[in-house]
Batch of 4 targets.
Target 1
Amino acid sequence: MSREYATNDWYPVADAARMIPGHGFTTRLLGEPLEVSGSFENPVVTARDGRMLPVQVRYGHVWTTTGSAPRPLFDIAEADETDRTFVPCGAVQVRCSPLRAVENFLDIAHFPFVHTGILGEEPHTQVAPYKVEIREDADEVWATQIGFHQPQAAKSATEAIETRYEYRVPAPTTAVLYKTCPPKPEAWDVIAIFVQPVAEDMCIAWPWMALYDDVSPYADLVQFQQEIFLQDRSILENQKPTLLPLDPRMEIPTRCDLTSVVYRRWLKRKGATYGALTTAA
Amino acid sequence: MTSVAVGLSRDLAAKRVMRAEVQGYDIAVWRDENGGLHAWNNRCPHRGMRLSHGFVRDGHLACLYHGWHFRKDGGCAYIPAHPELEPPETISATVFSITENAGVIWVSATDTAKAPAEDGEWEPLRSLSFACPPEKVRHAIENTPFAGQLPERAASGHLTAGSTALLVHCAPLGDAETLAHLLVAAGTSLAGRKALSRWCETARESAEAGPA
Amino acid sequence: MTCGAILTLTGQLSAESALPWIHHRGQLLNLAGWVRREDDQTIRMALAGPEPLIEAMEIACSLGPGDVLVDTITRARHTFDEKPDTFVML
């Protein structure tokens, strides 16, 4: 493992809308305790040594970084489209590597088994070929041309549809999903997972959505996404080893695991190994 | 004796899967539709998911994560994402030796599993977890009075206390925990079973209260 | 004659672990053919077997053992004069 790469990324530490002045709290980032306080307009993040860390509010969350030369926070253009509904979905703490949480978010072959009746169902288990690339100019992983049969692709879906997906990994602990929007087929719904690396083997997932859905009550949207993440947690806390192996010797990836393999290859190349197993498992 | 008692036969019904620990190995134990028992390394060779979370279908154990099916011999039978592919025999779960006798399931991670020969007829009472190593469990059980007297260890290994008899098989979980599988002499009355069950809980309190 | 594929890996492949690792993967996927080192930056293999398993080989090799970095994988058709029945390191 190496913290070096990880320290210069930005991470979510709070749901911005839930910041209450006078009610600060402690959390952990990359193994170190942090104090989060202040308000939505003016959040404050303090390191253990009393140092005030850089802060920005973006995508409904409070973001901070502990490094001396942070890379810019990635851009999600849809966050500026004012006709979308923005839904921060709370926090799900998971006893797993932050990288495993991202990898699982990029996986479609598990839908019929883990999210049965919602994001997939037997016998529709076949994964058609799709494309994955590392886009060198942006330094991001993209998986495109993904199609999958989904019984209830979104809260707003009224029947099973052939959903189209694109995945984007703009930072090692963030994945963004662009998927068919049931009420507005010409647009994409955006669902992101922002992962706070608490430690190498512990993370907090902060799902966030930017949807075209003006029908479903807000609470239902959150609950729909929370249910999916809780199903994923039962997988993530039972994968061995706990850290994400960058050498697949102990695994058997096939074509449907291509996004996972390209993601790992990208991490390996960058040296983004916080939460990764770099020796043979 | 390298075999470890992982559970009571009664507690693993057909088409059920459980998790066990044997000699430091994390193990998935499952029973097929015909009652046959299987013990595998608790890790799907595809992406490392614990197979003990899987499901039994068509005589196979399937992984919960991506539904890979494994035959009773451990060989991969079916990969749902690639339904046309006949998986090669080289893709396989790691299989360990398992047996059952007198109501107890035994697994060995290093050689052929053997169940001890038991004197007499036994019936399952319960499995009980202790937050201490097996030595302390055994010591507590032998030193906790039952119906006013200390139990005695018979030559064949079981304990007798008055007119009742108890068989205890301890399986270590890590360094600091024990899973004890308890059986009583066949024909023990319901009242007798309840009394023994309570006595085991008293023994547990004493085992866990002792110095570390 | 048997149809198969030639995979050519390029990158930082000098580690001694590279060839045995690929050999192990080929055996795990029950593929037949051969693998050989061309130079420090190039490894080539010829594979016979079902298409999804050749793809699985390609995907596993793109990540490879911990101490190599694969930059490119190219794939070409290959015809074996005789059907290979084992996977060998040349």
Note: The interface with chain B takes residues 27-30, 49-50, 52-53 of chain C (CB under 8 Å).
Target 2
Amino acid sequence: MLKTFKLGGVHPPENKISANAAIRQLDIPKTVFIPISQHIGAPSVPVVKKGDTVKAGQLIAQSGGFVSANIHSSVSGKVKKVDTIPDSSGYPKMGVVIDVEGNEWEEAIDRSGTLVKEYSFTSEEIVGKILENGIVGLGGATFPTHVKIVPPKGMKAEMLLINGVECEPYLTSDHRVMLEKPDEIIVGTRLLMKAMKVDKAYIGIESNKPDAIKLLKEKVQGYKEIVIVPLKVKYPQGGEKQLIKAVTGKEVPSGGLPIAVGAVVSNVGTAFAVYEAVQKNKPLFERVVTVTGKGVKTPSNFMVRLGTPVSELVEAAGSLPETTGKVISGGPMMGKAIASMDVPVTKGTSGILLMESAESKREKTLPCIRCGRCVSACPMGLEPYLLQTTAEKQMWEETEKNNVMDCIECGSCSYTCPSSRPLLDYIRYGKSSVGQIIRSRKK
Amino acid sequence: MSITILYTIITLSAIGATAAIILYFVAQKFKVYEDPRIDDVEGALPGANCGGCGFAGCRAFAEACVKENNLDDLFCPVGGNDCMTDVAGILGLEAVKKDPRVAVVRCNGTCEHRPKTNRFDGASTCAIASSVYSGETGCQYGCHGYGDCVSACDFDAIHMNPETGLPEVVDEKCVACGACVDACPKDLIELRKKFPKGRKIYVSCRNKDKGGVARKACKVACIGCGKCEKECKFDAITIANNLAFIDSDKCKLCRKCVSVCPTHAIIEVNFPPRKIKEIPKKETVEN
């Protein structure tokens, strides 16, 4: 009997059509647009100016606070400008635009493909390297990794969970990384364990990736402290709290962080990035991005330099299909439709989904029939129909009382609603408004 | 039989009298004094309970009026000066006269002027749309057109024009309570001075982008060129962040700025058509 989380969850069609496409290096574009805010927390502070020559891997924006991350150039070339650039929401954001010249890397980076298993770093040195190389969570939330692996005072980490679940339909970037870089992931996991001073790690993988489970099980032989946990397929198992529940059976308390139950969750992609940062001195300036969709000619997984415009990725996967209704950054459940094709790939871009126009359109919104499907689908045990109503009526106290802040925005409620009500839209609105109220109360 | 009835009457009357005496003393003991003027003031107010004065309804405003020693910071935008004179009369204070105001929507980005670049199909409210993205057009400052202002209005004074996709204010019904101003996430609606005959001159744009960027997104965007500022003799126009703003309290409706605006971002409403000036003929000197 495979493990899974108990409460709620849905089973959207998996559509992992790009699962067999090996990771291809995408050509370096002519110009890259690197936003200075690619992570949760304070935006970074640019340290280059117009006309500067940069190399790939060179620091271009310094971490702007405790919860923030360094940003490095993904290409070599000349800084064209430090100005506002398009963002997936359409609002202009600050960024660095670099005109590409050649492909020169910083000398310190080890560009060879050889696997470096051995290391003699202390925990602090590993955390230092992670901080220096701007590693953030690559699962999508982009929380700075150096903050995550150092537990706050009074808390103690007991175990590391490596997230290889990839429960989002369509996306296959984590799957491909597990298949192609298994040794690197194991080294990365051991480095993270060393940094956190824990002696137990679990790698959770959903059972729809039997090849990855088999391969990693072979690779962890000899490392007793790392356990591969196959999981039953259910969305949103890739959510931190759901993964902890599925693997350990522990429940993170309302409003608490995973560290409250002694767990720290990191994505497989992050483990790979940690390996590269520590063993190869390579800053996080490229990542694997899935480009997929039913109309796409060659659904692919690309290794992409950060800052590459989305249009380049789409072009490389065989041009934009005419039937495209929506271009989504991320997966169909949690991803966001992007406002323009000039938006660049950032640290949090796990996939680009070109959705067919027919399936992308929302159905007409009908009245709530009180069927309770959203309640049984909610993995956090909330009442989405109620939160939607209170948010719509702007009854913020009620919304807060019904634990709106615990919502992980997985979209299971909207997915399951037979009346196609925009539940998550309103809950997000409620979350941001209540969040503002809570912050102003603390001041 | 008759004795039973008699006893009943006597007993009940006795209970009634005792209760009345107790209640009288209790009422004296726990009496809450309320200024009778509060009721009078509330009677003089329009009773719209719109919150335009900044208080939670007319009763709360009336209480505030009675409590304060002057009416300097208190004004009912719905009742206007007449209503405030009545209130001042009741309280023996002096009313502060204020110019009547009217809501003005400062965006002219119709489908014609502002081409669409994408499509939004989420929950159709401006608050949600603006929290997730910049809008269906290239202008991140313009109207979303989902009508949060319309649903905020208690006076049926603002409607969406289906042709332009923009809200329009019915001046006669607008009481300047400011509900729509708060509802608009793009901060497009302003309460401006009400001029006679419904005349208005205002910059119908909130785009703070540089001129070229603004113009590319919308044909009638303010590009911040500053021509109007130079033209204005009354210091009513200021330019900040590539955007002109006309202060309605200083504006004298001379219309000079309207004619110099290269993008027609400045709009004049309810003016008679301009007379075409006759070009004076050059006197030709016959040789």
Note: The longest strand of chain B covers residues 101-105.
Target 3
Amino acid sequence: MQTAQNDPVPIRTLMTMALIASLFWQAADARAPRPQAAKATNVAEGRSAFRTNCAPCHGLTAHGGGRGPDLTSGNWAHGGSDAEIFRTITGGVPGTEMPANVLDDGEIRSIIAFLRSLAPPVHQLVGGDPGRGRQTFTVGAGCAQCHMVDGNGGRLGPDLSRIGAARAVAYLVDSIREPDRELSSGPVDPNNHYGLPLPYDTVTVVTAGGERIVGVARNEDTFSVQLLDVDQNLRCFLKKDVREVIHERKSLMPAYPENALSASQLQDLLAYLVTLGRDRREPGKDQ
Amino acid sequence: MKKICVLLLAVISFAAQSQVTYERIVAAASEPQNWLTYSGRYEGWRHSTLRQIDVGNVSRLSMQWTFQVADLGQFETTPLAVDGVLYGTGQNDRAYAIDARTGRTLWRYQRHLPDKVRPCCGAVNRGLAILGDRVFMATLDAHVIALDTRTGNLLWDVTAADYRQAYTFTVAPLVVKNAVIVGVSGGEYGVRGFIDAYDAATGRRLWRFDTVPGPGQPGHETWAGDSWKVGGAPAWITGSYDPDLNLLYWPTGNPSPSNYGGERKGDNLYSNSMLALDPDTGKLKWHYQFTPHDLYDYDATQIPVLMDATWEGRPRKLLVQANRNGFLYVLDRSDGTFLSAKPFGNVTWATAIDAQGRPMPNTALEAGAEGTQVCPGAAGLTNWFSPSYDPATQLLYVATSNQCDVFTSSPQTYRAGHDFLGSIYVPDPEQRPSGALKAIEVLSGKEKWSFPYHTTPNGGALSTEGGLVFGGDSDGNFIALDAATGRDLWHVQLGAAIYSTAITYSLDGKQYVVIPAGSGLFAFALPQQ
């Protein structure tokens, strides 16, 4: 391959699809086509094409990567028919990282066949109450101190306004119970074609005077680091002026084990989160 | 009358100066005020004897001018500097000439590309070559063209290959004698690689060397079945040349598909190799393959650095290459004899290179549920961006990446003009990739110093007799280091990743350093006293 890394354009490809894809679960769309009896050869080719074009964002198994949503939820926010997925792949989704892709029809059809072949998700929602979940989010568990939804809430963690459309329930459960297990990623620098997104890891800057400032990196390069500290202030440092910049491969988010968030509270919270990012349109109808 | 004579002499002098002859390129080291070929000179050194900017004053560098190419994407060009004019390229096959003193445009050329060109990794171009009153460009639609140095007018345009089958050019050509030499891109699409030479005057093709041997040719037996037809082995970085030996050294890239070898059993010559060609005929004189039967995309498309040194007690003509596979190779360039290979970073795909120059595979590599973690990753310990070599210190300055990838592998059906990778690799999720600009003692392979980059680099190194090494990182910093110690002496943030390597030239007694970043060329010099 010619350049430093695999071209991230295809990498981003299915990302939006995942955005699209996420949860509409209950809406599991009467209109959505039944998984088709795809030929095994198509699935194998689709797997290969998926890995080449989509896996860098959506993960090798399509369960979501650093940037791309999970494509195995079985529900598709931007339409789940073959034609709609086809359109999403070729046209991308404006306003997201999902680009338009130059693939031929056969490749796209094989990718769709591969996605159809994946095991359907095990639904973990067992009837939580979205209203109670919202309360848990904003007050009970304090999620809103750090996460923003539709313009309200904190800034330290990822904006969750579309999380329901971007991630499967299993991922949400992991993120709540074990936030260090897989760190979320921030945006990619558009001026660095081969750059990787910044992870939401914990960064501590130790100043020359010994003060420790903890936060998440909004940016960093060879000579400087820019943080959003735990008080949600932007702090910018030259590395030559500080004693140390420490990266810890863990999330700033506290874990919520059962003794902090009961099983029923978790179900409520999930029931709320999966509503986030739903299109305003009626599920199952084209706009 | 006297005035007229003086004027006439001046005109003749200008005319003579504006003509770049082959002899001038051979002797490029004697005119350090110019930058006449991709690596500055045929030996591939990217080192300048200019010394106005030095360790003591580099901190006072200031911007002189900026030129905007007005396009997005990776700006990978190396401009040529010729008697006060810079000739460069930009994304999507733009070309231009600018006043080297002010950055003002003299002409622009924009190729009208068809919609279906398929460059793997951006619509990039790495630069022009010059001979006489014309510059030469290899284009994304697989043509080679000649432009007039004074107007940018198209003088000839020849088709080298079919872009619809994903043949492209991104390389800066190399002029040797009257030949314009180019190597093709397309290793991600199952092209059959080649290196071509065209007559600078007419565009007539003088010769072609197929980097994947056909039936009946030596090396064909290293490809199973029909795999040679889509075998890759592109040749997308500019080679080096030894006028005394009359040998052209041109490296090649990965076999196709890059990550699946099941259908192409064998060594897959001449992928990932150094080729020594007769530039007059295109005949192969010798070859050395760095990574036989590659599965990790370890193109050998790094600059061959030619140097003469005493090796184990006797003077030898050496070829040195810091290879993407993580080993620093030393070969005898007269006959291709393997002399040594030492890792210059974290390497796990092979445990060593044996005395015959063949890699010893690492049998301890373990495949996980989602693939096999291999170091270096597909981006390599280094890549196409240029190293520099300082003959005084015998140090090689190499931009390096510290990144391992998780590789998967699966069969893929070839379709003309489409990706043909055989699966993919992703960065090791447990590791934060980073980089470094390293100074390596060429003969011993020992690291003298290492300057850390926060992220993996895409820009190379320029060294100067001012005791400096200029590098650029992927976060947009253009950096001057002390060549002896690696200490950071000066840097500036240019706002976009650097995908190329600096050049330097001199005009009106002032030394300039020019670096591309984003869509701009940025020129720096010392402020006026």
Note: The interface with chain B takes residues 1-7, 10, 44-45, 47-49, 51-53, 55-56, 60-61, 65-66, 102-104, 106-107, 189, 191-196, 199, 220-223, 247, 249 of chain A (CB under 8 Å).
Target 4
Amino acid sequence: MENSENTVIRKMICIMCPASCHLEITEKGKEGEYLVTGNRCPGGKNYALNEMRDPKRIVTAVVASDSTKIPCIPVKTDLPLQMDLIRGLLQKLFSMKIHVPVQCGDVLIKNYKDTGVSVVITRSVEE
Amino acid sequence: MNEYDVMIVGAGVTGLATACSLCRYKLRILVLEKNCDAAFGVTKANSGIVHGGFHYPLTTLKGRLEIRGNQLFGEYQKRLHFPFKRCGIILAAFTEEELAKVKELYERGKKNQVPGIELCSKERLLQLEEKLSKDVLGGLYAPEGGVVEPYKYAFALAELAEKNSCDIRYDREVISGTWKNSRWEIHTAQGDCFTSKYIVNAAGLYADRVSGCFGAEEFAIHPRKGEEYLLDRLSPARPSKVVFPVPTGHSKGVLVIPTCDGTTMVGPTAETIRDKEENCTTEINRKNIFALAKNMIPSVSEKDLITAFSGSRPAMDGEDFYIAPSEKVPAFIQAAGIQSPGLTASPATGEYICELLKKEGLTLEEDPSYIPDLPYQKPLREMTKEEADAMHKKDPAWTNIICRCEKISEGEIVDAIRKGHTTLDGIKLYTRSGMGRCQGSFCSGKILEILARETGRSYQSFTKRGAASFLTAGNLKGKEK
Amino acid sequence: MNILYYDCAVIGAGAAGLCAGARTAEKGLKTIIIDRESHPGGVLLQCIHNGFGLHYFKEQLTGPEYAGRVTANALASGAVLMMDSTVTEIRENGKEKLLTVYSGKDGVTLIHTKSVILAMGCRERCRGNLGIPGDRVAGIYTAGAAQKLLNMQGVLPGRTAVIAGSGDIGLIMARRLSWCGVDVKLVTEIMPYPAGLSRNIAQCLEDFNIPLRLSTSLTGIYGKDRVEYVTVAPIIDGKADHSKEEKIFCDTVLFSVGLIPENELSRSCGIKLHPVTNGPVTDSNSMTGIPGIFACGNVLHVHDLVDFVSREAETAADNCVQYIAGMDKEETENNIFPVSPEGDLRYCLPCSCKKGKDVCFYMRSSAVRRKARLTVSCSNTLLAEKILNYVKPAEMISLTLEGEKLCSFVPGSKISVTLSPVEE
């Protein structure tokens, strides 16, 4: 039977990889201290703890380019970004235009709003 | 500038066949069409049958025009090169009652002098069409019946008419006609004004409204909706001939049709509706159609379905065609109530309307510069490798395949656009791109790209079939303003 | 007409084709990879989201990054890439195969090749296939077609959307559209469980509060010119209950209702297809019913992860290399074991295996199970076993069987691959 010590306070599916582990989070006595079960790797535990404290996501988008062949160039954040900053970042990306050539891995925006998260290009486009 | 001898309302098969019959004479002809392309009304959603000539007695106008139309189709195809095959028509009976009706139709066919019409035993019928259910008891065979691609036929008629200086204006809806100084003055909803000595009302579902605009006869067109279901090229149900059930009431029943292009079509339903704009398909009709089709050809299966569509026949009280000079207003020919067999009849209807105009006083003087035929362009899908390679040397775009399911090249799509078909449906009907099993999932984006390149217009300006049928909602940047 | 000669012709330059072609070229076969698009990478190029490559490259990559890497590998291997080119026909020509290729640049090209690897991928089922009633209006797309418009051409398909089917592309598009300011009203799924990966339900729907209605059918699409609304109804006893039908207003409908291997070419050259997978029937040499024609990736069966596609492609390539090495030898096929999927399995590939040759079985479950046991046995002897957690139709299962385990059995004996639920 459940008792107040180890009640599951949230269930979630880990999105770190396609294994989609079913995670269960229980509060460890003190507020803000959690126990994670159901994960098959350490990434799952980190994911669950981040979800509880400060959820973040990798953001991907396309940015317009001046290429004659590839009108849209895909980009991603190199690290997960705080969820409440995503919309602002997307607005900025919608208004930008990339000048080709670019290489996959080139940094488009460095350290977005001092979060330590940068936006990098994910496709090389020559012309 | 805007003065014509004959103005035809409606660019469906009836209006365009009339234009083609008239354009051999020294006349200024105008066709006004409210849709953005030819064949977008009744012509588009149609079974595409060239009927055998045994359904109606010669006492009806539609019976007479059907027989003459069937005869003319071969000659029209030679000149205009649209897809048409005299694959033959079979009528299959499954009950004794139906067999009795078959005998009646056979007698009628004999009287109508239908060439080669044959009363068939069960064995003969199964020999003619092996896909038929073994439960068949007997039936009819009319070898001169066949299938046609109605829109390609209509486009060909439009091209021939335009080649002979006929003006065809799309996106023009007639709102009024006034008889002034022995001419008609016509206004459109788009603000144009034209004058013409004669008017032909071939407005299909809207012939009643157009008649009203000119102060001519009052009558009502009752839309009778038909749903059609298209099966994959690989469907084992594809018969070698058009298979009809024995007709009941107004409808010829649900057919199994081997279309010109290799697919199989089953349908149509016949349902009187109120709204002329309505053309939705329904689950119940789908189930009925498949059940009826399976009775005749057991290998028909919903598993092979690739798409469905529907359209309405412009039926009128009395059920015959109403093709006659107006008795109320001068110089006005009604061509209304042209439901089935309107497609089959159309070449003959064109001739007939020509004769009526002549009787009404129109002078028909042969034009020595008349061009009777169109150049033939074989589609890529019908070319041998050698022919395709030779075509590539003339225009490299012809070996760049855009629609993978139907093997349609960039060259053919550009050709369609340059001939004025700038909607996705217009290009589809002209080239067959997007008509195959993926239904445009792969090629629509590529076609948009070619459209944008050829016309210099933006993506969001393109429509599926004109009006507000916009395909996309702008680009990402525009969205965020 | 141009005429070319190759050892191996790979049809399709997506993940499967690029990985297969890179491998055959590395191993010394003169290889050409043919694709109808202008850029190699296949559908990966439009899958701008991340989550690819964790198994194959041991890191999280976006689709274009994965495509970039496998393209670079293929180019480095010496394989020739023939882009903007459509294969229209494969014919057997004695022991070799003859391919007809159409392209805008080169016209018609004939390729004589000793072997062919089919890697054409798959296509999406569409509205027409489902026979969904209603009007034929603008604004109806397959999820993949909408993804291509949005990510490759930068064009929004609409403003408010309903997504029919909970396949992965549909889920990914729900998030993508939401991020682009499109209001995604609903995702419907006719089955009682989602068709896509659980992580995609979490990150693509839950993050945006997009409702997912299971056991729900899209019963109609209506509008005059553009989609105006759809109707949805709950499924009760296997049928949509029209009395509970509800209107949802939207201007766009996306379909994510399953993928079908694209086997038009295979069919036209007489390759036998599998009734469940819709891909070719292959043996443990990845070979179709026609000697010298191999298949891998989504043209063989629809995969959940590109990583497995790459691996399967390399296996097919290795088998192709072996085939060419032994081409002149008369093979006596007396060590074949037919493979039979049993229990909860919908299918299992390959359809047969050989004594002495390791084989990786790929399969899918037909049921959702919290826990399940997968076994491989022959003549009532257990050869391999695996316990699986969270088995579902959306996720592929794989298992490797060492070839020597079959040594003691009589060729022709049936190998049973069985998935059964485990009670907890």
Note: The radius of gyration of chain C is 22 Å.
